Amino acid sequence: MRVPSTAPSSSVAVRTAFLTVKDAADYLGLSPHTLYVWRHRRQGPPSFRMGPRGRVMYRVEALDAWVREQEQADSRSNPALSPLSVRPQERSARFVSA
């Protein structure tokens, strides 16, 4: 008796390794327009052109890494960046009384 594999077939894995703008936008919960604007401004997740027609594509790995970077850059997700975790600085005396 053969047990079905839970791993995706190689053709499915190849198809899901790269996402179009629409698929990447769905994956991130954004609109495709937002990704186009970010690409134009050289912001957002890394993308590249693929194939003879130059379709804009995104690697799923790169999207995941970009999301992790966004989480680490946000003080609400990264306690080390929270201004509440830093001890207040002592104020220096601007005027010295004689």
Helical amount among residues, as a percent range?
25-40%
Structural class: alpha+beta
* Extended strand count: 3
Parts with pLDDT < 50 across at least 5 consecutive residues: none
Q: Helix-strand pattern, N to C?
A: HEHHEEH
Strand order of the largest sheet: 1-3-2
Mean pLDDT: 81
Radius of gyration, in angstroms, nearest whole number:
23 Å
The major sheet is characterized as: 3 strands, antiparallel
Number of helices: 4
N- to C-terminal separation? 94 Å
Strand proportion, as a percent range, falls in 5-15%
Question: Explain this structure to me?
Answer:
With 98 residues, the chain is α+β, with helices and mostly antiparallel strands. 40% of the residues lie in helices and 11% in strands. It has 4 helices and 3 strands. The protein has a 3-stranded antiparallel beta sheet with strand order 1-3-2. A hairpin with a 4-residue loop joins strand 2 and strand 3. Helix 2 packs across helix 3. It is elongated, with a radius of gyration of 23 Å. The protein starts with 9 loop residues before the first helix and ends in a 25-residue tail after the last helix. The model has no long low-confidence stretch (mean pLDDT 81).
